[in-house]
Amino acid sequence: MVEEPLITGNQTFHTVTDTISRIAERKTTITWLALFGFAGSLALVLLGSIGYLVWEGTGIWGLNIPVAWGWAIVNFVFWVGIGHAGTLISAILHLFRQRWRTSINRFAEAMTLFAVICALIFPGIHVGRIWVAYWMFPVPNQMQMWPQFRSPLLWDVFAVSTYFTVSLLFWYVGLIPDLATLRDRAKTKIRKIVLGILSLGWRGGNRQWINYERAYLVLAGLSTPLVLSVHSVVSTDFAVSMIPGWHTTIFPPYFVAGAIFSGFAMVMTLGIIVRKVFHLEHFITINHLERMNKIMLLTGMMVGYAYSCEFFIAWYSGNVYEAFTFINRAFGPYAWAYWIMIGCNVVVPQIFWFRKFRRSVPVMFVATIFINIGMWFERFVIVMSLARDFLPSSWDYYSPTIWDILTFVGSFGLFFTLFLLFLRFVPMISMTEVKAVLPQADPHHGGKH
Asked: What percent of the chain is helix, strand and coil (3-state, nearest 5)?
C-alpha cells in the first residue's frame, strides 16, 4: 500500500519558504481588518463585562446557592481543555516521530497559548475581589495569611501556569529558525531589527542546529507529562469534594480524554478555515485532516465510555445519592443539556467510522462545531449537579444573566483577536519542519548518495 504524500503540489524548499513567508509579509488585507475589528469588538465586550463585575461584584452573575460556581468554572475548564491539543500535537507526536504533525503544530500550539490565557481569566475574576487575585499565589498577604495549600484553587495556579510557561517556551524555540528566515527576507530596517532580536542571532550553523534539536527534544519531554497532568489537576478540583457525581477516580482520565477531544475539534475548526482562506491545501491536506478525525473518533469513544461508566458505578455502588445525581442528570431539570452533550460528543463522532465522511471537509467542519458545543455542555452538566444537592430545601435552578453570556462571548473575542494577530505576523506553519518531510530532504532522493 502506497502512503499518501504529506505535502502535495511538488513543493521545493524555495516554494515552502515563499508560500508561508508571504502570508506574514504581505500588506494587511481588508478581510483581515474586518475580522480583527469584529474579534477586537468582542474582546472589548469581555473587558467591559469584567469592568462592570469589578464595580458591582459577582451579584451580576446568575450565581445562587447551591450553584455557587456557575459559568465561570464551566468556562475555565472549557478553555483549559481547548488548550490541550496544541501541546499534544507538538510534544507527544514529536516524541513518537509522527511526521504528519509538521503542517499543523505551529498554529495548534498558538491556539493552546491563547486558550490558556482565556482560561486564566476566569479563576481570577470568579473570586469576586480580583484586586487580591495574588492570594492565589503562594505568598503571604498583608494579614500574614498564607494560601491554603489544600485548596484546589492553588493547584490550578501551579498546574496551569506551569503548563502555559512550558508551552510558550516550546512554541518560541520552534519559531526561532523561521523568524530568522523572515529576518533575512525583511525589506525594512525596523522589521529586520525586530526579527533579528526575536530570532536570537540564528545563523543556521551546524552547532546551532544541534543545540536547537536538543532544546526542542527536552521541551517536548517536559511538555508531555504536563499535557496529562494539567487537566488531571483541574478534574481533581472536583473529585476531592464529597459531591455525588464528582467524587470519583474516573475524573482524571475522563477529563484528559475530553480535553484532547475538544482540543482537536478546535484545531480542526480553525485549520479548515485557515487552509481555505490562505490557500494552503497543499500543506494541510485531506490526509492530515483524516488523521485528526481518527483521533477524535478514538477520544470521542473514550468520552462515551466514561459517560456510561459513571452510570454503571452510580448503580453498582448502591449509593442512593450517587444514583439520584445521575438519574437527575438524564431526566431532571437539566436533561436538555445532558442530551445535547450526548448527541454532540457521543453520536456525532460516529460518522468518522466512514472514510467518505472522514475526508469530507464540510462534514468534518460541522462535526467539529457540534463537538465544541457538546464539550462546553459536558462541563455545564457536571457543574449543574450542584443544583440539587443533599438538602431539597436549598434546591434551585441556575440561569445565566446577560453578564455571564457577555463574559463568555467576550472570551471568544480575546481568543480570536490573539489568533488573528498570530496569523498576520508569524509563520503559521513551521517552514523548518515542513521542509524536513519533503522528498528532497532525504539524502538518497533522486538516486544520490
From this structure: 75, 0, 25
